[in-house]
Design a protein that fits this description.
By secondary structure, this protein is mostly helical. The chain is built from 2 helices and no strands. It has a domain of about 30 residues. The mean pLDDT is about 75.
């Protein structure tokens, strides 16, 4: 059996299993890490707090974010936009 024939047979087997309602067998995974099996509350407690959206302040100071080319963002400090404007 060629490689393509084997792939075709595997694909047809997955399709037949999906049509029958049975979940397709997946490759064996490594044992689950202890942190992954923790309850969601414990996992959330271990994570660092997410950055809150910063409200733009009344000052007109530039953002100051610099890109790899050395250009500086011209938006106001703490802008809500996800992208920066460089010049």
């Amino acid at each position: 059996m060629s490689k393509m024939d084997a792939l075709r047979a595997m694909r047809e087997a997955r399709y037949a299993a999906a049509q029958a309602g049975a979940p397709a067998k997946k490759a064996a995974r490594s044992p689950v890490a202890p942190e992954a099996s923790a309850t969601p509350a414990k996992v959330k407690a271990k994570r660092a707090p997410a950055k809150a959206a910063v409200e733009p302040s009344g000052s007109e100071e530039p953002c100051g974010h610099r890109n790899m080319g050395g250009k500086t963002c011209t938006r106001e400090q703490g802008h809500a936009a996800k992208s920066h404007r460089y010049s």
